[in-house]
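Supplementary Methods S3. Input chains for the assembly prediction are listed below.
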Amino acid sequence: MKELQDLARRLLLEGRVDIVIGYQQGPRGVRPSFVTRPEQADALIFDERCVHNLVTYLSPRRAHLAAWPRRAVVVKGCDTRAVAVLLRESHIDREDIVLIGLRCGGVHRSAEASGPLTAESVAFRCADCSIREPELVDHLLGDPRPAPPGNSRLAERIGQLESMSHEQRREFWNNEFSRCIRCHACRQVCPMCYCERCIADKTRPRWIESSAHLRGNTAWNMIRAMHLAGRCVGCGECGRACPVGIPLGLLNRKLAMVVDEHFDYRATDDPEVPGPLGSFRSDDAEEFIV
Amino acid sequence: MSNQAPSAARGPSADNATFEPRIVAFVCNWCTYTGADLAGTSRIQMASNVRILRLPCTGRIDPLFVMKAFERGADGIIVSGCHPGDCHYIVGNFHARRRFRVFRELLDFLGVDPERITFSWVSASEGGKWAQVVNDTTRRIREMGPMESWPRASTALDDDLHG
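Predicted structure tokens for the full assembly:
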């Protein structure tokens, strides 16, 4: 903890960055922390409750952070893959940011959790994660951590859905999407959703109906998944942010499996790897095309 | 192609004998649109269930278009463009091929039978192939029946409010 606070203080004192974005204790569990003055650095913490993917605050869409263009951000191993996508898509300059990597052995599903990490409490993404030490970072802090417990069973749930008929699957998703209140929290929390003007907010023409009705809800959730295909890093923040508990992670994971199977692409912390939908091979399979 | 709308009964009550599928075709300007034109000028007979929308390239065909068509009452979709290697913009159809692979899997996962959509490469000289794509798709959608699983924009009021 102390080395994290010392590093944050030094980065601010030396003028290397304008802001350090990390985690601090909030009134209800851990919350993101925005440290702009050296004396605030003592608030920074890191433990199993630090679920948030703070890379979302590197996105240029965050207009309220425009006053602090050079940012240091605390990242876990999984979070750096989101940085890699932002770099790949030329939305941030590597020189503008400082990545403070922390060794991670998994986090809880909720930032309000307490006690040790168990197979029941571990976040879905962590159960399948093999990254103990973040790559791509400028500073690597923390003690070595054991692998997290449990299994996400996401692939299993996807398999169950796929064994259903189209009608049953449609009913399943209608049931999920009909609860959507179109708060767009899934978009706001996503580090990859950085459009200055989202297609869901455009009105001429209005592609996606904005009222909370199954029709617009279906369109929104479908196009959200589509826009994240081959870009999603599986951090699961959309599902965590969803106030009505739609299993958005299932959609994202399904498309991650598709781009893996067909385009041999998996989320990576290497910004040089081209995105699967921003590239192609002339011999891509096309058995579905007549 | 005829612009005349199929007039037979629609909706859940329509049985397969009277059901006339509404099919929307998104085609590229350079190959398939010209191919469809050739089919017309060659007087090739084909089903009149398909409405063509011309776009610059298959690379311009956003999955949103397909979604909107389903919302507005399409029973089936055709997406067609230049053969790989023949794209007017060199690589547009290569990108489209990947995009539609993913979109197709997404639809399937959400419970929409991907057989509702025909993907095809039809060149400017393939008028006959276009007619076949139209006829095959119409026949298949007719057998599948009306698209009922998609939440539809159903009334004129809806169209006024959300159009």
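The radius of gyration of chain B is 16 Å. The interface with chain A takes residues 63-64, 67-68, 71, 84-85, 91, 94-95, 97-106, 108-114, 118-121, 133, 136, 149-153, 162-163 of chain B (CB under 8 Å).
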